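chain below, 171 aa
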Amino acid sequence: MTTSRLVLAFVLAFAAPLAARADMPGDPAAVTDDHGMYRDKNGDPTYKVAADGTVDWYTYSGFRRYHSECHVCHGPDGEGSSYAPALADKLKTIAYAEFYGIVVSGKKDVGAANEKVMPAFAENKNVMCYLDDIYIYLRARSQDAIPRGRPPQHADKPAAFDEAETKCMGE
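prediction:
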């Protein structure tokens, strides 16, 4: 992980929980397209679903990465489990910066009846290199923009995705 990414992760890990609680996730409508990566009016990553149900590449990638790294605890399709909360519901109330901070630094919820601990994933390239994709997928699920299960159709993988993946994974 590059020094700048570590610094960003550190800053977001501490600033996001404080700042994001005041901000709800905004309107998920895509207003910009940077080579297949859509962003909302706040600049946060978002999804785009065509009228025929075709999802953008990053939503599809997020589905794949979520089910590779996250569903063991958070359940299939972000629906939650007895072990961890439903992220499809959680993304209705937390903004991107808070999501990012939680994934990077982890989270601990301790109460009289239970103790839930999410580990930090800052050093896991299989999460960090695809964190935006995972967020985009869960954001689409939180808005019921896509149904449960593998998206049946997706846009082609943009060249920018391959370039970013290669750079992040250090290949």
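Residues 10-22 have pLDDT under 50 and may be disordered. Residues 83 and 113 are 13 Å apart (CA to CA).
thats it, cya
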